Amino acid sequence: MTTAAQLQGTAPRGVRGAVGATATFRRLLAKPDGLIGLLILAVFVILSIAPQLFVGQLQTAVTATGHRLEPPSAVHILGTDELGRDMLNQTVHGARVSLAIGLLATIITVAIGAVIGIVAGYVGGWLDSLLMRITDFFLVLPTFVLALILTPIIQSLVGSTATEVFGIRMTLIVIVIVIGITSWSATARIIRSQTLSLRERAFVDRARVIGAGGGHIMRRHVLPNVINLIVANAVLTFAGAVLTETFLSFVGLGDPFQPSWGQLLEAARASGAPGLGAWWYFLPPGICIVLVVLAFTMVGSALDDLLNPKRRGRR
Amino acid sequence: MRLRYLSRRLGSALVTIAFIALINFVLFRAMPGSPERVILRGTPNVTTAQLEAARLRWGLNKPVFPDQFVAYVGATLRGDLGYSFIARGQTVTEVLAQRIWPTVILFGLGEIVAIAIGLVLGAYTGWRRGGFVDYLGNGISLVLYSTPYFLIGMILLLIFATTLHWFPTFGMLTTGAQYPGLFERAQDFVAHLVLPLTTVAIGLIGQYAIVMRSSIVETLSEDYVTTARGMGLREGRILRRHALPNALLPTVSLIAINLGYVVAGAITVEVVFNWPGLGTLAVQALTSRDYPVLQGVFLLLGVSVVLANLVADLIYGALDPRVRT
Fold this sequence. Notes:
The complex is a heterodimer. Chain A is mostly helical. Chain A has 14 helices and two strands. In chain A, a hairpin with a 2-residue loop joins strand 1 and strand 2. In chain A, helix 5 runs antiparallel to helix 11. The two termini of chain A are 16 Å apart. Chain B contains twelve helices and no strands.
């Protein structure tokens, strides 16, 4: 969408951005998949902000309230795990861990991707070729396997796993970092191609003629114009980050003291829940993962339809 | 023209493989603790003399760059990936060789089944866009796309192995079983294969159907399809002769790009069913911090994915004259 402001050569930002955000939000709510996705996410966000209000403190092997692998009952609506912990309690607390890891990993992923994309697209030349070579490498590489070998190595480099950052244990912080450095490539590609077309616009030329430096132009003129794209991409990245965390926890890289949904699934598998018929052990965290990833994907693609200039107007 | 395309693709694949080898080299040396201590781990009361001997033997007294790096590249090219920490006396190459076939069989067959079903489903729902089957198929595809593969595996295991007892729960063959003949052995193998294979196929169908559907939808809005309609061709013929061949093209490259994600699923599905492939090997190596094996798995999977991408690129180039530049 080319606005009059862009044609006249002024960078559209500031006030217009704020109005645009509210309007976009309204249009997102008008789309059925956007609305359903947002509702699902709202429920999980509320649960993860204050899980103790709904289900009490996280139960440990010591404070467990039930017996080993009890099926669902009036007392334990979702049954208990192999240590007698209430599955509802575990699952609701798991929301907090999974979403926190997903959020932090998304921030890192999108930040790396946006910086590399903008710099590569704006500066161009050999720097662009180099950055895009690295990006392509990460696109082709099975990044999950890279994450698999990076995680234990960084964990042993960091040392103590009990230290906490923002109330998150070091093991999980390492997972956040690993997801961040292995999954930024798709974002970088998208942001770069958008930056390439922005670079040719009149308002960027004008800023250059006035004497603005590259850093200034990238921060004040390019970034505000790709921010929409970054937001849409971040929502989709979130879905991927939750899945990657689940995979990493499932192969035993999670933290049993702060169980995410993936960690719960790993515990269920390790205790042989599918073989014992204990469906209540793995279905609750499993369904939560599917719901959250589905919701993010729905909101993300709805946003992408609204905000991505390449997709706008199609279909 | 043709040659340039070929050599550019080949060159880029080689560079990527070199990058993978470089990462492998750097990571192993980034680990805390000197390499000889890591290698001698588990050996009680290491003396200084033993440490010295180890350093000499593995060339660790030489500078990291270029000597150690050159030695590493040479050894890797010869297929010498070092020794497993855990499987005493076995080289990483031997360990990998034992585990590669189960993975190839499981995922090769899984991919074929998923591609066949996924493409048909995607093509049909795209063709009948807006219809009931489209909504249903699209919904199912989206849910499957959001589901971690191993969760599908756990659910299938619960239903078909634990509750119905139709299939065995784990492994590739019944442990300790004696087979009177090759046929019984194959039968046991197939019984073990069904559930993991179904899991892989179900996990993949979603993404292939989504890709194929959007590709078909795009193709059907092209001018040549409108022209074909205008010429009075029947819908079935338009779909088969005009839309499908063109819609398949982008799907080929997307399937190749997605291979990296498939690997992640591969590892976890094998873990659920205790399938003795590279995935379970990677997780065992991870739990016991068997770094040489872990590196070997990374190298093998990384190179395979790069080569698969190369093959897809070449197929794409052969099918579509526009990209042969």
